[in-house]
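Assess this one:

_____
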Amino acid sequence: MTTTTAPAAKPALRPARPEFSSGPCAKRPGWNPENLTNAVLGRSHRSKPGKARLKEAIDRTREVLEVPTDFLIGIVPGSDTGAVEMAMWSMLGARPVQLLAFESFGKDWVTDVTKQLKLPNVEVLDAPYGKLPDTSKVRPDADLVFTWNGTTSGVRVPNADFISADREGITICDATSAAFAQKLDWTKLDVVTFSWQKALGGEGAHGVLILGPRAVARLESYTPAWPMPKLFRMTKANKDGGNKVSLDIFEGATINTPSMLCVEDAIDALKWASAIGGLQEMQRRADENLAALTRWVAKTPWVDFLAEDASIRSNTSVCLKVVDPKIAALSDDAQADFAKKLASVLEKEGAALDIGGYRDAPAGLRIWCGATVETSDVEALTPWLDWAFATVSAELQAA
């Protein structure tokens, strides 16, 4: 084949921090291991100092994320996945269930509900990558499981207006790549989950589980028919034989042993978030990063957003597709290979690390734009994206 794209000179300026991975994400600006010297190491996490650090992580989360005072916050195992599955295994089955599936993790929750829990009366509202399902079909009488922001599709719900304020079911919201970057409507959410490794730039393996009053009421009034693993148990039997939520879990007494080094790292990130202006500033930084990419895409003919509708476009996990006619005419495998080569040459140059699209998503690039990323680095990245496209196109022409 032939192409008119010619190799270009390498840009003079590289991003100061080329970490654009969508998880684990870039550490906060100015991060240094020395900031973790207060970590409670070599001690039990149930010691007084250990529990105090866990409680501080919870309290700072409430402050920065602006979580209502009547919501419970717990640190749980298994990252965001563990937090979502704890909620589903503990609460679903009491009512019909609806799931929104518009990216890979939402599809995972569909598998859990339909093939593992094997619940009856389940409805899946799905959409292809880059689009949202028809949210007008969400029913107030059913439980709802959904991702607020599709980490692998670059699509987010613009708001929670599709959820009834008078709902009878509960909502379980996977907000792992939305928390701290997008405005969550706490009046419409009963369970919210995220992991430190996303918008906070923290370490992996731990999840955060936030329960509203309606979720607590479900836990205390409903007992699932299936056995419950220890890691998922959030209630204890009370004197009347009913369930009572184990409040100590939400005061720093974790179900299993956490990494206190990871806890300290989360505290450091939350301190930084407070220092720069809290939730509003973190959202502004993510919005500005998306705006920088939007300005570049608008003048660049070979690329476009996977989410074509700007109103549902993510400001964190920004997914791009190659729309150059010569590349778009290739087979799916060839397009995937082209996108992989783009990511590879950028990594070799130290200009961008880990920006390949998710393995189950359409071929393309995925650039993290959360608050821990500097807009100056996003702006420095865009000439390198153009250079990579020209370079890989030239190699394709020569092959």
